[in-house]
Amino acid sequence: MIRVAKLSVEAGRHDILHGIDLALPPGRIAGLVGESGSGKSMAALAIMGLLPPGMRAEGRVELDGRNLLDLPERELCRIRGRRIGMIFQEPMTALNPLMTIGDQVAEVLRIHQGLDRKAALERARDRLDRVGLAAPRFPLTLYPHELSGGQRQRVAIALAIALRPDLLIADEPTTALDMTTQAMILDLLRGLVRDEGMALLLITHDLAVVAGMADRLAVMQDGSIVEEGPTGQVFRQRRHPYTRALFAASTHQPRLVLPRAEPRPLLQVEQAVREYPLPRRGLAGRRESLRAVDGVGFRIDAGESVGLVGESGCGKSTLTRAILGLDPLQGGRILLEGQEIRAGRAMPRALRARMQAVFQDPFGSFDPRWPVERLVAEPFHLTGRPRDWREQVAEALYEVGITGDAMRRHIHEFSGGQRQRIAIARALIIKPRLIVLDEAVSALDVRVRAQVLDLLARLRVSHGLAYLFISHDLSVVRQITDRVMIMERGRIVESGPTQQVMDAPQHPHTQTLLAALPRIPAAWQDHRDGHEQVSGVALSPPRP
Amino acid sequence: MRASLILGALLSGVALAAALLSLVWTPADVTQLTIAQKLLPPSSAHWLGTDHFGRDMLSMVMVGARSSMAVALIAVGIGMGFGVPLGLLAAARSGGWLDEVVMRGNDLVFAFPSLVIAILITAALGPSATNAIIAIGIFNIPVFARVSRGAALPIWTLDYIRAARVAGKGAARISLQHILPNIANLLIVQGTIQFSLGILAEAGLSYVGLGAQPPTPSWGRMLAEAQTMIALAPHVAIVPGLAIVATVLGLNLLGDGLRDALDPRLRRSP
């Protein structure tokens, strides 16, 4: 059994962890939840002895009565992998692209157990079978690029458990994956803990994930564990205010009477088709193409909020690019207020100005060299920059809750949530009719996400906006949309009022998606959940 | 990190200052031959000694710095002036026929051994500083085209480019407003490297007699002329050799230092 006692980490004069305690008994899952920057990943790295240079750990990480923090690097190398395994968030970069999956798993066995290649490959086969990559379909000779994200995460797990470690640390293991893939990976982890008697330290920002997994739960804030106990108890009691805020935010529903949409069509998508040419098979082979969007049709009315949900590769991003007039269609048409959207220069500026977008990545959405006022003013390119553009930018920033001397600062000085607010200000500045929100809150922490969702709900009322909200996450879509469309393999397979689709899904794919959605058991939910005011956003700020 | 910037700036600054100073003043006239004072070691009258014609080496190095730097600088200018727009264009039309044409054209230039072709060009057009500039400049074009295309491609996939396209901006405007400032760091670093390579190339060309013509002194020809006298007066070879090494080293350090200093993400927020 591994026990962490009074573990502290400091970098120079900054304390990153303040004396955290964790017990990691075999066959049990310990959940560690917290927001980004709370120090939860640092705790994992400290346990592994993998802290970045310049950081120092104090306290105890006990394994068989020895303190791992005192061991020299040589000894730690033997313990890592053999006694403690780790998997990370990003399966796309966790594997060596030049080695077959069999060799990668076998390599671990050869280094640590001195097996010869043949014996190691046999054992690798066994481990890959165990993580659900069974023999005939997944030969050892596959390369990582031949696998999907979920399959790669399985290989990463096989690598981590190849030596049957006592402890497996999983740092956001499913955050980069689709909902259905997430459910399968979580199932796999649960099974491994049960069958192999490992301890699992599950680090995540997602309360619904730990609710269904962890035996004990620790909530982390600013480098300290503020609450710890059996999962059900922590969920029900919520002794610490931070735990309460976190839990409230994760089930938060923007509390606003949504305006009735005017039955006036704003966006019409008619039989949209978008194809990509596939690489030729051989020199004389026929050039085939992939239909990423296959005859999609729908309509969004003015002032309506519509969700578009699907897993990666379903065609929702392709469709989004076509709607935004960035890529051309091969068939069908898209109309915005009755005018056809064409890609490139053919699209009149006045038409483009009626639609803006907010993208997923709060870090990639802004030119790092431009000051905020110039970033927010960029869409004025479509309408011509008014004389009082600075005042308008300031007003838009004020509306999204960015105040102070933000205008002349650069984007790297802002947090993820602030950046997403600035992105919303940029979308608002030319007063569009429709805002396309492409995974706009997926990268945010739960509390920040709740605040941004509140903001979006409020702006929709005050500006009469329509939203097209694209996401892979049904739970977020439920919070913000009136109507939802489910997309699978280039087609919309189900659509209807959000509540109705959630309560009584008709199409099998929708049912699969909903079944995969991690949930907090109803008995653990507070009656106040979803209605608590999330701090930081006033519902109706005075107009400046 | 900062030390390299300071050292690099210092070395390149000294070379640049020497070149500029030589426009208005040199310790002695470099066209005046005084055979009686040939091959003198460094002394208070001639700080770096004299060469086999009795010319003052310090003056020679200063004027040599001028022609070396002028050739390399203009050659880098040619390379950037043509290469960067081509690279940005290729990145904006990535995968299209224009990209293909630009990049295959680059490959064509890259396929020739540069110094040999430079010798060919200057031999064909006649040896002169101008022709050396043209020869070195042509080989800078594909370098800058490739660097700017390579650096621009990942930026084109970022969301702020999508946001700019949603704001109705075309490829040219996006390249100019968003891409170019964000790859400027790389271009500056590449520019200083090409600048130092240009100095080396100019030295190489004038070493074989295809650069600036006598009586204009140049570092390469000083080396060539010193070759037979190394045993007799080693300073005649060491001085221009050190000048080349110091300038090239200084420019490389400067390039690295500038890259770190220019990035707003590495800058401390106020």
Tell me about this structure.
The complex is a heterodimer of chains A (544) and B (270). By secondary structure, chain A is of the alpha/beta class. Chain A has 19 helices and 20 strands. In chain A, the strands form four sheets. Chain A has a six-stranded mixed beta sheet, with helices on both faces. In chain A, helix 3 crosses helix 4 and helix 4 packs across helix 5. Chain A starts with a strand and ends in a 28-residue tail after the last helix. In chain B, 72% of the residues lie in helices and 0% in strands. The mean pLDDT of chain B is 85. Chain B is mainly alpha-helical. The chains are: A alpha/beta (544), B mainly alpha (270). At the A-B interface, strand 16 of A face helix 6 and helix 7 of B.
User: Count of DSSP helices of chain B?
Assistant: 9
Strand content of chain A: 15-25%
Helix-residue proportion of chain B = over 70%
Alpha-carbon distance between the termini of chain B?
20 Å
> Count of DSSP helices of chain A?
19
Structural class of chain B: mainly alpha
* Class computed from helices, strands and strand pairing of chain A: alpha/beta
Question: How would you sum up the global shape of chain B?
Answer: elongated
Mean pLDDT of chain B: 85
- Strand content of chain B is under 5%
Side by side, the strands of the main sheet of chain A go: 6-7-8-3-9-10
How would you describe this structure in keywords?
heterodimer, A: 544 residues, alpha/beta, 6-stranded mixed β-sheet, 19 helices, 20 strands, 34% helix, B: 270 residues, mainly alpha, 9 helices
